[in-house]
Input
Amino acid sequence: MKEYKFYGWEQADVQAVAELYKGINTPIDLYDVLSEIWCADTCAPRMRDRWTADNKTLGQCSITAFLA
Output
């Protein structure tokens, strides 16, 4: 099983109330999809120099909120 460390991961298996997006039924599903596209280019500019593949979520709040 994959290990998650994001805030709220313990309750992130709650099911969506509608089936609007194929394959995204829980917050975990959304995290998995987004973690494939997060990169230094999607990181907030002020944090970009600290972004690493080991810490993919750094600076991704704005792009994540926009997409979600």
